[in-house]
Every structure is written in C-alpha cells, then in structure tokens.
Amino acid sequence: MARIVMKFGGTSVADLDRIRNVATRVKREVEAGHEVAVVVSAMSGVTNQLVKWCTELSPLHDAREYDTVVATGEQVTTGLLAIALQTIGVDARSWQGWQVPIRTDGAHGKARVEEIEGARLIERMSGGQVPVIAGFQGIGPRERITTLGRGGSDLSAVAVAAAVRADRCDIYTDVDGIYTTDPRIVPRARKLAAVAYEEMLELASVGAKVLQTRSVELAMKQKVRVQVLSSFEDKPGSLVVDEDEIVEQPLVTGVAYSRDEAKVTLRRVPDKPGIAATVFGPLADANVNVDMIVQNLGSDGTTDMTFTVGKAEVPRAREVLEKSRAEIGYSEVVADPEVTKISIVGIGMRSHAGVAATMFKTLAEKGINIQVISTSEIKTSVLVGAEYTELAVRALHTAYGLDAPA
Amino acid sequence: MARIVMKFGGTSVADLDRIRNVATRVKREVEAGHEVAVVVSAMSGVTNQLVKWCTELSPLHDAREYDTVVATGEQVTTGLLAIALQTIGVDARSWQGWQVPIRTDGAHGKARVEEIEGARLIERMSGGQVPVIAGFQGIGPRERITTLGRGGSDLSAVAVAAAVRADRCDIYTDVDGIYTTDPRIVPRARKLAAVAYEEMLELASVGAKVLQTRSVELAMKQKVRVQVLSSFEDKPGSLVVDEDEIVEQPLVTGVAYSRDEAKVTLRRVPDKPGIAATVFGPLADANVNVDMIVQNLGSDGTTDMTFTVGKAEVPRAREVLEKSRAEIGYSEVVADPEVTKISIVGIGMRSHAGVAATMFKTLAEKGINIQVISTSEIKTSVLVGAEYTELAVRALHTAYGLDAPA
C-alpha cells in the first residue's frame, strides 16, 4: 500500500471522455490498495479563454480579479472528475484551494505556496475517499483566491504530495517520460528510468519543458519522489528522485538545448575594476535576466564583453545599455539572435574530470565553433551558431554513449 | 444618497460589451452619490453548458459536486465586472458566496439562505468600493459551495439588500417592468408603477415570471423595496413594495394566466366523510402539487371530484390514483390538459365586494364556460378551455379598466 498523488494536466482532462479515462486510471490505483489524491488542471483551452476575457477588458487588469476568473477553470474540472469517479464507484470529493486550504503569499498571478494543511486530506484518504484538488490555485491574505502562474498545477501536485507525505507524485502528461535528449532531433534518444532532482533542474532550465522548474525545486527541497508518465499510454515513466536513489550513474545523463537566448556583445569596453558591475547592475535593475557571460581581454586595454539574454529581452537590454553608454564607455552593442545553447547535464560530472573536454573535442571534430562557454557543477553549456543545433546535439548524444541500441 | 443593490441577469452580462455596459450603469449610480453593491448571474448559456457536462457524466450526479461546477459561472462574471469597473475608474472587488459569507443550509442545488454577513460589505460600500457579488451561490455546512436553484440570483440580490439594509434592490432584466397583463396578448397592457408584494406573489404564481417567487417572499418578509427594470433601456421600471406605499389602489392590478396546469376528474366518487383526505393524502405524499379543487355532488350519492395539477405531473398523479382506486372507489380518471387558469389579482379586492362577479359576468358575455373557480383574499382564478385564453384575458383587461388610453 502506498500513498500517491496523481496529477493530470489540461490535455488529459480536455473533454468528458478524457475525464472518464482519468477516473478509470485513478480507480485502478485505488483498487490496487493505494491511498490516492488527485490534482487537476483546467480543461485545455479554458484558461486561455478566461485570460483572453480579462485582457480584452483591460490589458492592465487587477491581478486579484484575474485570479478569481481563471481559477474557475480548475474548479470545474474538480467537480466533473469527482462526479466521474463517483459514477464508477470511487468515493471522491472536490477541494478548491481555499477549502484545503492551500495558503499562499499575496503575489497574485504568480503566488508562492506557503503552507498546505494536510491533516484533513490524509484523514479522507485513509477513509478511502479520493480528494480531487484544484491545481494552480490557493488562498492568499484577506481570503482572496490566488493562482501560482502558468504550469502551477505541477507545483500544486508536488506541494500536496509533501503535505500528505505521499510516497510518490505521479505527473501525467502528454509525453511519456524524460529522455536523454529531444527525440525529434535524435530518434535513438532513450527514456530515462530515473533522473536526479539537480539534473532535472538543469535540464528544465535549458529547455526540456516536461516539468515546471519551481515544482522540481520544491520536490527537491521536500524530498518528494516525482514520476513523469503518459496519461494516454499505459507504461512506466521516468522518476525524478534524490541522487542516492539512482544506482547506476552515467557521466552524462542528457543533452539539452535552448533556442530562447540571444547573444549580446559590447565592443571595446575599457578594462578597469568594477566594469562588470557597471554593465550588469543596470540590467539587473531592469529585470533583464543575464545568463552566460564571457570577457575577452584585448591587447589595447579594452575588452569585448559577451553575454546572453532571453530573445524577447534584447530590446530592453539595448535600451538599458544605451542609457549607461557614457558610464561604461563601449564602442558599440551587437546582438545576435541566431544562437543556440547546448548543454550536457549529469551528476557524474561532479566526480569525474575530463567530461567537458569530450564535449569540446566532439564539437571541434564536427567543425562547430564554440562562442561562449559556461559551467556549473553538473552542467557544461556552450553557445553555438543556431544552424549547428541538430548536428551538435546528435554528435554529443553519441559521444557520451547515450544512443539506444540500434 | 441612497444604498442600492443592483442585480444583473445572464442576458445583461452575456458578453464583454454587455459587461462594459453594466459597468457604465453602475458607475452612473456611484457618481450620483449612491452606495452600490452589485449581484450578478453567469453569462447566459454558461450555466446550461456546465449543467450539461454534469448530466452527461451522470444523470444522478452528486448535488455537492454539481454546485461546485455550476457556481463557477457567477464567479467568472464577478471578476470580469470588477475589472470592467476598475477600468472606468470605479473601485470594485469580487465576492464569492464563501467570501461574504452567504450562509445557506445544506440542500445542495436548491439551498436556502440562512444568514448573510452584511457588516464587511457595508464597510466597503461606505468606503466607496463596489462589492460585485456572485448571485445564485452560497456556502453550506462543512464549507461546501451551495447553489440556490434556478433564478436564485434574484434571491441573492434581495438577501444581500436585506443584509446591507439597502434602500432599494434594482433587478435589471430583459423586460422593463411589471405589466397589467402579458403585452403579447394585450398590446394595450400598461406598465405598473408599483405593485404590492402580495400581488407580485400571486402574479408570479400564475405565470408572470418576472421575479422568482422565493425572492418576492423574502423581499416581503424583510421589507426590501424591489424595482424591476430593463438593462437595455434607460427608463424607470416597476416597484414591488409594501401595500402602504401604494397610494392609489385599483380594484384589480393585473390579469394573469397559466397554461401549466391540467384538469383531473375522478368520476363517481362515493360521497362520504374523509373522502377528500383519501384522494389528496396519497397525492401529497407523492409530491404532486394540487392547486384548484372542486367537488360536485350528484343525486345518486356519488360526486365528481375535479382538481388541477401541473401538466408534467399528470402521469404521476394517475399512478398514485390507480394505487388507491379500491380505497377511493371512483369509476374512472379523466385528465384534460387543454385548460388555462386565468386570474385577476389586486389587493383592492380585500375591501371591495362584487369584484369577482364582474369576472364571471364578463366571461359569460363572451360565451366562455368556467370549469373550476378558486379564490384567495386578493385573487380570483377560473379554469377555462385553453382555446379561450386570449379572448378571456383581453375581455377581463378591458372590463377592469386596465387598458391604456388609445
């Protein structure tokens, strides 16, 4: 007997047939003797319609009223799924954020979960009832409905799993697990049986958008074992767990890529102490997220400073840099959106030297020029020309022995 | 300065343009210096869709989950209207039933309002903020969402008006007031400036479906002054108030009709004490609502017993009567759905004799046979053949001097 939280996203509850299908899956777990709670998203398309209405009335709508409107999407699903479960003989009841309660801060539209009262849910579950909980929403200060931001239902599921001390949090989605890389680029990509939290965080941050980053962070912090699996097929998915649980650790777990960043270069910046602060301070103040940074010292006492920002943030970055032009003293700003960030991720990199060297050698052999390099404890990322994306990913996937047997 | 509750039904908030229109109307009252609270229904069509989903999943769905699902319709409207109001500079916030709270009993799907906390609403209103309250819903025992049944938003509005001690409750709808009779039958029907609560109750019960009956009962009990007016046109509507407020009281205020009833006759019932109880006891037990009753004594010690029930209830009535056939001892049951109940209503009838006589004389002159008569203190109803409906209504409207000047 285990205690399981099952989470179903918008496409899994898109219509009544799919809701019935979800009910059948839940029933199977209940009949296997497990204690089950379910977290659901809005039926797909519903949230978009609600957001559209708010935006049409006012682009600058009150975030509190926006939350009141969009939270109804999940509320509808909870009631319908509870009915579908009861219809096939499973005791169930719906729970909204304010009923649990799922307490959040007051940051409407992107609230943080502060506390979930698990006692009543546990009591119901041990009595054989399935709580069907609205994802994506909570209750903030002054009894206002809050929402957790896009993808927030994953976060709700992990938070509920922590609150009821679940053995596992199963995230049902439209992919069937986490792969060594994007199977659309590498047909021989393998589904991973298990990924460490830290690896998942790095993979998520570089574009493997299976799980919302905040939900992985929370799972790691609260030691919630997460499984990603398909709601349409009937096979095991991928576990996201503590690294201690992963018996065989490859050097590199996956190859990820992101086309979301652009490269910005400041030419001929005077090389003097404090110059980095002069460049990046104003960008941070303007909420421009800077990722990779590299600085090349020239022979004439000036340096070219290169960094990456989100493609959508290039105009804002230019504006900020223009304002501090006098202070920084650069000659020109060059932005290049035609770049891709390629990363190798693996907790094995912590204890093994030379992992990154294989990356550089592999890319060199394919004639791919590396524009920027950045590293973390379990990740090495390089920026390359966008046209090399597929070539680089495939070569690295093979080089690190990740290809499935032919 | 007055304190006003404004209620807008589904057609008045059917889309964003109409919601903006409602916001403009609310703003006008606020700018006139009034304290305003608003009660809204779901956007028209939304509730039907939600009900359909519940019913498709299970015809015998859990009423608690049904309430959770359908209450979202009003929630969406509250948020959108709050945004629309803020956009034109009116301070506003949405309130769901559980936030106010509007406490009800646990009769899900048709709950009764037990108590509304008015203090916080009054505080907001006197601070210049407009509470936008979800109609049709409340919170029952164990923190479950309840709904008040179809048309329940009228009830919500009157209950809120009582709770905040409003000077008036304005019900905006798709008709512009209460008429002396149905203008589709009598083009010269007149809009009434004021109607007494008791009259409105009798008019509602015989088919003038402008206001939900329970909301009129509550208004009468709590002395809430109600105004019915159009949300599409800009002119005063009809007041529903205490009879003391109505200065000039005509003998007859209106002529109403109902095609919802059928006539049932039990032939040759033995005329003995207790026979009425034998007939109507089992019908009441089976929840069959009996309205008009008449009994004609024959010369042979038997009697024909005639009464009316809702047309939809005829099969159930037949079934009940069949079961008690031996006990009652009638010869046959005859049901006739081709009847209409015509009523004249007016508090003036209390103090004036001969009002009903004019009705009988008028119908006789037109050659209309009266099948059953029933009377109350302020109403006289007759059952006539359905084909005489328009003729009877027109003749009575003229006879009681209700026609507008030509």
From TrEMBL, chains A, B:
Matches recorded under Gene3D superfamilies: Acetylglutamate kinase-like, VC0802-like
Enzyme class: transferase
Keywords attached to this entry: Amino-acid biosynthesis, ATP-binding, Kinase, Lysine biosynthesis, Nucleotide-binding, Transferase
Keyword ATP-binding attached: yes
Any Gene Ontology biological process: threonine biosynthetic process
Binding site for substrate: T47, E74
Annotated ATP binding sites: K7, F8, G9, G10, T173, D174, Y179, R184, K209, V210
InterPro entries to which the protein is assigned, alphabetical: AceGlu_kinase-like_sf (IPR036393), ACT-like_dom_sf (IPR045865), ACT_Aspartokinase (IPR054352), ACT_dom (IPR002912), AKii-LysC-BS (IPR041740), Asp/Glu/Uridylate_kinase (IPR001048), Asp_kin_monofn (IPR005260), Asp_kinase (IPR001341)
GO cellular component: cytosol
UniProt-listed PROSITE patterns: ACT (PS51671), ASPARTOKINASE (PS00324)
Transmembrane segments: none
GO molecular function: aspartate kinase activity; ATP binding
Span of domain ACT: 264-342, 344-406
Enzymatic reactions: L-aspartate + ATP = 4-phospho-L-aspartate + ADP
Family: Belongs to the aspartokinase family.
Protein name (Swiss-Prot/TrEMBL): Aspartokinase
The organism of origin for this protein: Muricoccus pecuniae
Phylogenetic placement of the source organism: Bacteria, Pseudomonadati, Pseudomonadota, Alphaproteobacteria, Acetobacterales
